Amino acid sequence: MTDMFNNEQVMSAESSAATPVAYVSSLGVANDSSVDLTQQSNSLQTNNLQKTLEWMCYPLLWLIASTAVWATFTYELEFGLVNVLFLFFVIAYLALFERLIPYDVTWQATKKEWLRDGAYLFITMMGGALSIAAIFAVASLVSPKTPSLPLGLEIVLAILFISFGSYVFHRLGHDWPWLWRFHGIHHAEAKVNVGNNSVNHIFDVWGRRFVAQLPLIFIGISQESLFVVSIFNTLQGYFVHANINVRLGRLNYFIGSPEQHRLHHSVDIKEAGHFCVDVTLWDWLFGSYFWRKGRKPDAVGIKNPARFPPPEAILKCFIHPFKKPK
Ligand SMILES: [Zn+2]
Prior knowledge:
Blueprint: H1 4-27, H2 31-74, H3 79-100, H4 111-142, H5 151-175, H6 177-187, H7 202-218, H8 223-241, H9 258-264, H10 281-285, H11 314-319
Bound molecules: zinc ion (ZN).
């Protein structure tokens, strides 16, 4: 997870820090240069702090998620409640890191956009609560409360199944013109940040959930495994959208990241693969994996955003897919 640019900055700060000391001591002048040295030392500290934050952001999030799962099982907490609390926590956590280590400052959400994203989140949560209630109602009838297979194995199976269903539905959302009329609402904005993960047509959210999760219930995956996987998916879904300067290195070959997902939002359709946000397996198998180290999209959004209503026109966005195409 080395950052070439920051390393260069650190090295040049270190080498230029040595030169003024020698020069100043030979002249016996200290006042102005001591100010320079203090500034250089401050910028070095800022660089080091940023590098530390970049390094710790993702592992710390995993540590917190694992603790939440452990506490839920140990103290028999309500799955639904922990899910909702974790969702709010992840958004707040990543929004904080977007301020501390932004990837592109022009992608940061304005206050108005946060309000809009909050409204979408509310609609998604209300709609999502309905779909989760429907899914868990079916689950309570069909699937066991505790796993029949070892929990670890069930979780791996559940991740692969959900990931496959999400991949198929997401890819169809891009390839089928009628489904794109729903999913394009998520892509219309020329920014990628944690808030706009919530900007979706509610039918797009429902469609993906049903396609991805219902088959799992019918093959008898337990509610415990569904809970763990839903925590994992919340973590990944918001993390990959976050406008933060993290580099996952070779982990990028196995797991979704902001580095890959901002390519998915690229205006250049040739690099806009990466339909997986959790594990990258299906992108590899179906030829939509394009990420290479340091690859950045020139622009994000869609070529012709005027074909969609602006995301803040929530009602217009809702009825857009049902209107006759112009
Ligand atoms: Zn997409």
